[in-house]
Design brief:
By secondary structure, this protein is of the alpha+beta class. It is built from two helices and six strands, in the order αβββββαβ. Strands 1, 2, 3, 4, 5 and 6 form a six-stranded antiparallel sheet that branches. A hairpin with an 8-residue loop joins β3 and β4 (about 95-110). It binds nickel (II) ion. Nickel (II) ion binds near residues 88, 90, 130 and 134.
């Protein structure tokens, strides 16, 4: 495994739309392993392919309870939106409130290409939507409804 460089806002790669993953091979597994290592090093909750320069529809997420690898994900449903405090490893130093669902259902493939459905709540639901946005070239700060400027209790980085 190896640490990858996390791209930050201003890098045009982060604004591009990602292509589907078609090969569930060792190369994909190696990239995912690198993503886990890179996210852990950065104390992140989620990390998407484009954040390490890979324009493929995939991300990982870890809310401290569940670890998910979402390949070719699709948000099936969302409910109960609220203003969630958020940050992003690719937008360092910025925190703000974004409208996110308290519950979401996602359909995705795992690293071996097997389809699964996952019902997420709270931080995980927020994270899945945040990461999914990355796959379409959207950064969270474009959705901020209210900036957060205090230093204490910062949101977790995705
Ligand atoms: Ni992010």
């Amino acid at each position: 495994m190896a640490l990858r460089t996390i791209l930050t806002k201003g890098d045009e790669i982060l604004a591009k739309k990602c292509k589907p993953v078609t090969k569930f091979d060792k190369r994909l597994h190696d990239i995912l392993d690198d993503m886990w290592e890179t996210m852990a090093e950065a104390n992140g909750v989620g990390l998407a392919g484009p954040q390490i320069g890979i324009l493929k529809r995939m991300f990982i997420a870890d809310d401290g309870e569940t670890q998910l690898e979402c390949i070719n994900p699709e948000i099936i449903s969302t409910e109960d939106e609220y203003e969630a405090l958020e940050g992003c490893l690719s937008v360092p130093g910025v925190h703000g409130y974004v409208l996110r669902p308290r519950k979401t259902v996602i359909k995705a493939q795992n690293r071996d290409g097997e389809e699964y459905t996952f019902e997420a709540e709270g931080l995980m639901a927020q994270c899945l939507c945040h990461e999914n946005d990355h796959l379409d070239g959207h950064l969270f700060d474009s959705k901020i409804v209210r900036y957060y400027e205090e230093e204490e209790e910062e949101g977790e980085e995705e």
